[in-house]
């Protein structure tokens, strides 16, 4: 019985890496590795895994863990001179022993606060002082919430700019059975066509080949419908105007060392992000970016989906 176990527990994960397990009274769980400050598991009260982690994921620095929710900071992808997706995803974060109080009642919420501070090596690549606090919360209904607060602590008076993404890998039954609602008719930058700008057509987005797009200025609510699983993920975001959609498909999957050849069928990345326009903080300023995920049963049959109902739930 999960009722016997603590709501928040620090234990050892793969290869002896530290991880924090969050438990919710009805049985949902989440796991967060200090390596990368990365959520690697989120299960509903039936014990079903909702996030994808690669069958070939390498749980060992310096390679970031392939799956879950890597944090891309201070750079998304190759939009700058830093390493791909920045360094936050392959640094060891620490647990904040004195987290700030929760704004609302805390008693039924399991949460952990992690901190990323710059190392000497990071400062050479990105010469800024900052404090990055990440709160991961498992809500009473099993919802998963991530809140990032990044503060400029430069003492030289300099502002800094960054791009950011919660690079979420959703677990899906079969990529061909999945659709995304909430991104129709929006503009996107196509990473497969030199970041050229296009406008999405009017239908829900479905998948039949490689996709790597940055949708710009999206609504704060996006739905991912898994027809076969009869499950809908609802992604809510705040402070993050863009949404990246990525699936490598078969050829690219084979070229990614830590991804199984068939894994692309069972994953879909929909990433709450700030990519098109970088975010700028002056000394003393703080930015907050929030992601909230819920997984609900899809109350529809094939061809009878009312998109409005999904997005309003
Ligand atoms: O292999 P990674 O460095 O983890 O990146 C995986 C993917 O992340 C994002 O979704 C980018 O848009 C893709 O271009 C990139 O291929």
From TrEMBL:
The EC number of this protein is 5.1.3.15
Q: Where is the active site?
A: 167, 271
UniProt binding sites for substrate: 66, 84, 89
One GO term of the biological process aspect: carbohydrate metabolic process
- InterPro entries from the xrefs? Aldose_1/G6P_1-epimerase (IPR008183), G6P_1-epimerase (IPR025532), Gal_mutarotase_sf_dom (IPR011013), GH-type_carb-bd (IPR014718)
Q: Name one Pfam family in it.
A: Aldose_epim
Keyword Isomerase on entry: yes
Per UniProt, which keywords does this protein have?
Isomerase
Report if keyword Nuclease is assigned: no
Q: Which reaction does it catalyse?
A: alpha-D-glucose 6-phosphate = beta-D-glucose 6-phosphate
What would be an example GO MF term here?
glucose-6-phosphate 1-epimerase activity
- Which GO CC annotations does the UniProt entry carry? cytoplasm
Stated family: Belongs to the glucose-6-phosphate 1-epimerase family.
The protein in question is named glucose-6-phosphate 1-epimerase
Species per Swiss-Prot/TrEMBL record: Apostasia shenzhenica
């Amino acid at each position: 019985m999960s009722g016997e176990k603590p709501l928040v527990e620090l234990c050892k994960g793969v290869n002896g890496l530290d991880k924090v397990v969050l438990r919710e009274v009805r049985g949902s769980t989440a796991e967060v590795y200090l390596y990368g400050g990365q959520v690697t598991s989120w299960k509903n009260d039936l014990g079903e895994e909702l996030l994808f982690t690669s069958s070939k994921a390498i749980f060992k620095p310096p390679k970031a863990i392939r799956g879950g929710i890597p944090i891309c900071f201070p750079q998304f992808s190759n939009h700058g001179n830093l390493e791909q997706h920045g360094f936050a995803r392959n640094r060891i974060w620490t647990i904040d022993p004195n987290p700030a109080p929760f704004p609302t009642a805390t008693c039924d919420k399991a949460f952990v606060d992690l901190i990323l501070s710059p190392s000497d090596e990071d400062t050479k690549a990105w010469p800024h002082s900052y404090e990055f606090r990440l709160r991961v919360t498992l809500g009473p209904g099993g919802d998963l919430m991530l809140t990032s607060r990044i503060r400029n602590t430069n003492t030289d008076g300099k502002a800094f700019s960054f791009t950011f993404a919660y690079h979420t890998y959703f677990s899906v039954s079969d990529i061909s059975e999945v659709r995304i609602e909430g991104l129709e008719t929006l503009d996107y930058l196509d990473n497969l066509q030199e970041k050229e700008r296009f406008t999405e057509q009017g239908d829900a987005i479905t998948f039949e080949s490689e996709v790597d797009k940055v949708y710009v200025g999206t609504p704060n609510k996006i739905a991912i419908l898994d027809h076969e699983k009869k499950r809908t993920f609802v992604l809510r975001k705040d402070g993050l105007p863009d949404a990246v959609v990525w699936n490598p498909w078969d050829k690219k999957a084979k070229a990614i060392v830590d991804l199984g050849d068939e894994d692309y069928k069972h994953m879909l990345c929909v990433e709450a992000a700030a990519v098109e326009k970088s975010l700028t903080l002056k000394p003393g300023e703080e930015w907050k970016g929030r992601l909230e995920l819920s997984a609900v049963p899809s109350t529809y049959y094939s061809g009878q989906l009312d998109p409005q109902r999904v997005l309003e739930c």
